[in-house]
Amino acid sequence: MIPTLVIGLREGLEAALIVGIIAAFLGRNGRRDALRQMWIGVAAAVALCLLIGVGLVTLSQELPQQAQEGMETVIGLFAVVMVTFMILWMSKHSRYLKRDLEGAASDALARGSAGALVAMAFLAVLREGFETSVFLVSVLQNSASVASGTIGAVLGILIAVAIGYGIYRGGVRLNMARFFTVTGLVLVLVAAGLLMTSLHTAHEAGWLNVGQATAVDLTWLVRPGTVLESLFTGVLGWQARPAVIEAIGWLVYAVPMFCYVAWPRRRKAPAAKKSTEPAPAPVDAA
Predict the structure, then answer these.
(1) How much of the chain, in percent, has pLDDT values that exceed 90?
(2) CA atoms of 97 and 17, how far apart (whole Å)
(3) CA–CA separation, 82 vs 90, rounded Å?
(4) Residue 190: count of CB within 10 angstroms of its CB
(5) Residue 216 — φ and ψ, nearest 5°?
(6) How many alpha carbons fall within 13 Å on the CB side of residue 165?
(7) What 3-state class would DSSP assign to 211?
(8) What pLDDT score does 154 carry?
(9) Contact (CB, 8 A) for 203 and 235
(10) Where are the alpha helices (DSSP H) in the chain?
(11) Dihedrals φ, ψ of 214, to 5°?
(12) d(CA 116, CA 34)
């Protein structure tokens, strides 16, 4: 439940922030016509993402067992690539997201193109929704409880929508850089576990046969039905007897990514303003 809640919260808040910033900008500039179009575009993007998620689940269930393992591997690796890109991008741009979006919106309105803002909101929701669909499908396929994972995802999205609405109305203040750093660290662990699971399903599909010896025996720690078992398998992706290639994949991905996201970043110093006053005339020495 924890991994899907974080995924829903993180991805949902990104989309809610972008839509909320654009909606507030259009409202301040009296473009209610474009605002209505934007909400239609957002609804269409959400519906399209739901269709993608349902289609992936349906296709996976209709395949033979070995083909299902192969498809789970492909979806899992694709999800890892997408979430990695998203983590890296937000690590660089979260602090200045509002400023950059309002700058782009101002330029679009200056050119008389409110349609660009509608397209921006549609594509933002479509991108985040597509990432969420693929990531959640991959996580839920390897979840011990699909119902619990689904509830976590729905709760995360609802919390994200509530926070986004609060920011839009001006009643919620949130340190974006800190928020995305903390959730980014959790997602690094989830993605590392997803990579580990993908390496396992790749072996089940007959694609990966090296490094299949047991790396470590965790049966004394990862016992079925315990809190530690939920933590290790549900969040970290570690099974009771992980293979060598799975443990290596987890470490190679998680350690550098965790260090990168956790590394403190300095704020850019504002550029010094150029003085418009004339330079003083040189003084001749006596």
Answers:
(1) 8
(2) 9
(3) 12
(4) 24
(5) -155, 145
(6) 6
(7) coil
(8) 83
(9) no
(10) 2-28, 32-62, 65-93, 97-110, 114-141, 146-169, 176-204, 227-229, 244-262
(11) -70, 125
(12) 10
Residue 174 gets which letter from DSSP?
Answer: -
CA separation for the pair 137, 232 (Å, rounded): 19
Q: Which two tokens stand for residue 129?
A: 């929704």
126-156 pLDDT, tens per residue?
A: 877 787 777 777 776 666 667 777 787 888 8
What span, in angstroms and rounded, lies between the C-alpha atoms of 166 and 174?
10
Q: What is the pTM of this model?
A: 0.70
Task: With both helix axes pointing from N to C terminus, report the angle between 2-28 and 176-204 in degrees, rounded to the nearest 10.
Answer: 130
Is the pLDDT confidence value at 255 over 90?
yes
- List Cβ neighbours of 244 (8 Å cut-off, separation of 6 or more): 211, 212, 213, 214, 215
Residue 247 pLDDT grade (very low, low, confident, very high; cuts 50, 70, 90): very high
Alpha-carbon span 261 to 31, nearest angstrom? 38
- Kindly give, in sequence order, each residue whose CB lies less than 8 Å from that of residue 196, ignoring residues fewer than 6 positions away: 237, 238, 242, 246, 247, 249, 250
Convert the pLDDT of each residue in 192-235 to its tens digit. Answer: 888 988 898 899 888 999 999 988 888 887 776 666 776 777 66
Report residue 222 as tokens.
Answer: 């990862």
